[in-house]
Amino acid sequence: MMLPASNKMQPLMAPMWRTTLALMYGYDQTQGAQQQQQYAQPQQSGYGDQPLYPEPSPPSLADGVRAFTTGSLSAEDFQQIFATSKVYCPRGDNPGFLALHNTQQPVIPMFTSLKELRRYAGKESKYFVITGAEVIDLLPTGYGFVLDMEGEHRMVFDAKAVEQMVDFAMRRMYG
């Protein structure tokens, strides 16, 4: 059975607003998921998989500690490195930081690398990893912390220094 010509299905036309958007923003939404975008592959040099212009990597926390303790890095620059770096913390059976209470003020040992943590706590020790920003956010009031307790460039931050770090982070975040 044939349908009359007037009853044949017509292709759906894109609404006028889609055409306008396509012209304004340079893409065609009428083709939908049928066409996949092709992305250009990054050019490689003749030396294996090395890109032509490698991205500079940010300084590691250990590098920041060394530079700060030798005076070649400002406190603000150190805090920016600390905030984005991974910090290794020993842990017990319960969640949370392990604190040392045999000091003038309670401090929490933290480490710039797993190697430094293992040097202090042993190969089979339990640990967790968080960012420096999370340390500043989660550290209990009245506690300080020690970075790389057994390391060459050990750094101690007392509770007052931690408060200053919190203030700096708040100013940087909220103005």
What does this structure look like?
This protein is an alpha+beta fold and 175 residues long. The protein has a domain at 61-174: 3-Layer(aba) Sandwich (Trna Endonuclease, Chain: A, domain 1), CATH 3.40.1350. The chain is 34% helix and 12% strand. It has six helices and five strands; from the N terminus they run H-H-H-E-E-H-E-H-E-E-H. The protein has helices spanning 16-25, 61-69, 75-84, 114-121, 132-138, 159-174, and strands at 86-90, 107-110, 127-131, 144-147, 155-157. A three-stranded mixed β-sheet has the order 2-4-5. Strands 1-3 form a two-stranded antiparallel ribbon. Helix 2 (61-69) runs antiparallel to helix 3 (75-84) and helix 3 (75-84) packs across helix 5 (132-138). The chain is globular, with a radius of gyration of 28 Å. The N and C termini lie far apart (75 Å). Residues 1-30 have low confidence and may be disordered.
